[in-house]
Amino acid sequence: MGKEVERKFLVAGNAWRHMVEAEIRIRQFYLAAAPGRTVRVRISDDASARLTLKFGDRARERDEFEYPIPLAEAEEMMAFAIGRVIEKTRHHVRHRGYLYEVDVFGEVLSGLVVAELETPEDVPDEMLPDWLGREVTGESRFYNASLALGGIPEIAA
Fold first, then answer.
1. Which residues are catalytic?
2. Residue pair 100/114 in contact by the 8 Å Cβ criterion
3. Average of pLDDT values for 87-100?
4. What is the Cα–Cα distance from 53 to 39, expressed in whole angstroms?
5. Is 113 exposed, middle or buried (0-12, 13-18, 19+ CB in 10 A)?
6. What's the CA gap between 66 and 40, in Å, rounded?
7. 40: closest CA among 152, 125, 141, 148?
């Protein structure tokens, strides 16, 4: 079991784009979702797939279990998705030694750009990059499960 400690931010502007180290095309969907728990399948670059179970309702920390699964089975499971399939491109961007995952959403969520920072310690605000907008940690409407199952959040950096 791993602990996932993360902060989420809306992204303001494109200043991060020149620092991208890697890009991953992601399709992800949920097989089950209830308060404090989700079961997700993520397909990366149409080459690999993972099953993820998350538990907990604290904004910044949840228990996470993740397992590789055969790509063909993941694609079959998509027929059982609840809500919409999320399509996004994840960009790895480093700033002051920290890895930010900047997700640029597509399809119906086009225009939404969210950065996640997973660290065991609290990063002081003065260490955060200027291209981060409003922090949305703990705002459930920006959780991927909410994006898949609910409405589209008003985007306001």
1. 30
2. no
3. 96
4. 5
5. buried
6. 9
7. 148
Q: Supply the pLDDT for residue 157.
A: 41
Count how many residues are written for the chain: 157
Q: How far apart are CA 16 and CA 43, in angstroms?
A: 24
Rounded Cα–Cα distance for residues 13 and 47 (Å) = 30
Nearest to 26 by CA among 57, 7, 56, 48: 48
Three-state SS for 141?
Answer: helix
**Position 29 pLDDT exceeds 90:** yes
Where is pLDDT greater, at 35 or 24? 24
Pairwise CA distance, residues 52 & 67, whole Å: 6
